[in-house]
């Protein structure tokens, strides 16, 4: 089994008419995750340079259990509802383990 912090890259394609509202939901989820979840080490929001409707969330958790706790947090439920309400399409969610060189 791999060890090291769990890194999550979540890629989304927003619609032009909803991207600003989606970014607001992403920022709120990021702020609450870092503030409220001891196992959330980092959470940043990126927007595509060539495609401003393409949004990537870069999240780092102590371990898989910390990520599972994130999925049960009230702010994650709010974020998930925003995905549905804004018609956001999940492109891909990938998991990695940070390695020391």
From TrEMBL:
Residues 6-96 form the ABM domain. This is Antibiotic biosynthesis monooxygenase. Keywords: Monooxygenase, Oxidoreductase. GO terms for molecular function: monooxygenase activity. Pfam families: ABM. It comes from Bombella dulcis.
